[in-house]
Amino acid sequence: MTSQTPEAVHPVRTHHLRQAKERGERITMLTAYDAMVAQIFDQVGTDVLLVGDSLSNVVLGRPDTLAVTLDEMIHHARAVVAATRRALVVTDLPFGSYEASPEQAMASAVRLIKESGTRAVKLEGGRRVAAQVELLTSSGIPVMGHLGFTPQSEHAFGGKRVQGRGPEAADALCDDAMALQEAGVFAVVIEMVPASLAQRVTEILDVPTIGIGAGPYCDGQVLVWQDMAGLGDWSPRFAKRYADLRGALDGAVRRYTDEVRRGTFPGPEHSFAE
């Protein structure tokens, strides 16, 4: 999907992603957690901005995604929405906010949409959450699914492990994907599965797939933006680094600190005359 000039901004909607799949156009998606970053990604032409529960790790410094709350997701989603003109903003329903029942999922999604302005929600799981997805979508709430390695189930998986290996596991994941489509999702994120399985899921689904650690055959790709830009001191194997923002920021802070300590900043050009 192509970017557009500010004078001709047409917001990306869920049906545009399906049309992109039908045309064979790749969908671009990145995480975003604040207004400044969201504005940059939006102006570049990123199709989808995901306010991911990964903010628990990369923004709030926690060891996993499980502790992030619905209030925190709303807070960050509101900032991203405020800075976005074109991209489709999707926000994760955090762990514990939808698993108990379709009614719990509905209450959480309504809060998220009303209080943040997000355009869609994302939740993890296949057949086990199909009833939740069906209630949300039948009520007019767009839902993105998430299969494969689902971070909210990290402890049940025994850590960050590739999913869908072996015939039975692959068949089960395909069944989950079909269940999500039948329940009404507009797209499915596939995380950390063999590339051949992601290709199989992409071929059997009419809705687009968004891969992360799932090979090149998905209809689109998503990365945590800090991994993509090299801001962290570690990134997963599947995350290509397109910049070294950590190195650039390290150098800038060192120069700033040095100039303040030597008394060369602020100089006359940074000061006000009487």
TrEMBL record:
<keyword id="KW-0963">Cytoplasm</keyword>
<protein>
    <recommendedName>
        <fullName>3-methyl-2-oxobutanoate hydroxymethyltransferase</fullName>
        <ecNumber>2.1.2.11</ecNumber>
    </recommendedName>
</protein>
<dbReference type="InterPro" id="IPR040442">
    <property type="entry name" value="Pyrv_kinase-like_dom_sf"/>
</dbReference>
<feature type="binding site">
    <location>
        <position position="122"/>
    </location>
    <ligand>
        <name>3-methyl-2-oxobutanoate</name>
    </ligand>
</feature>
<dbReference type="Pfam" id="PF02548">
    <property type="entry name" value="Pantoate_transf"/>
</dbReference>
<feature type="active site" description="Proton acceptor">
    <location>
        <position position="191"/>
    </location>
</feature>
<feature type="binding site">
    <location>
        <position position="124"/>
    </location>
    <ligand>
        <name>Mg(2+)</name>
    </ligand>
</feature>
<feature type="binding site">
    <location>
        <position position="92"/>
    </location>
    <ligand>
        <name>3-methyl-2-oxobutanoate</name>
    </ligand>
</feature>
<dbReference type="InterPro" id="IPR015813">
    <property type="entry name" value="Pyrv/PenolPyrv_kinase-like_dom"/>
</dbReference>
<feature type="binding site">
    <location>
        <position position="92"/>
    </location>
    <ligand>
        <name>Mg(2+)</name>
    </ligand>
</feature>
<dbReference type="InterPro" id="IPR003700">
    <property type="entry name" value="Pantoate_hydroxy_MeTrfase"/>
</dbReference>
<comment type="similarity">
    <text>Belongs to the PanB family.</text>
</comment>
<keyword id="KW-0566">Pantothenate biosynthesis</keyword>
<keyword id="KW-0808">Transferase</keyword>
<feature type="binding site">
    <location>
        <begin position="53"/>
        <end position="54"/>
    </location>
    <ligand>
        <name>3-methyl-2-oxobutanoate</name>
    </ligand>
</feature>
<dbReference type="GO" id="GO:0003864">
    <property type="term" value="F:3-methyl-2-oxobutanoate hydroxymethyltransferase activity"/>
</dbReference>
<comment type="function">
    <text>Catalyzes the reversible reaction in which hydroxymethyl group from 5,10-methylenetetrahydrofolate is transferred onto alpha-ketoisovalerate to form ketopantoate.</text>
</comment>
<comment type="subunit">
    <text>Homodecamer; pentamer of dimers.</text>
</comment>
<feature type="binding site">
    <location>
        <position position="53"/>
    </location>
    <ligand>
        <name>Mg(2+)</name>
    </ligand>
</feature>
<keyword id="KW-0460">Magnesium</keyword>
<comment type="pathway">
    <text>Cofactor biosynthesis; (R)-pantothenate biosynthesis; (R)-pantoate from 3-methyl-2-oxobutanoate: step 1/2.</text>
</comment>
<keyword id="KW-0479">Metal-binding</keyword>
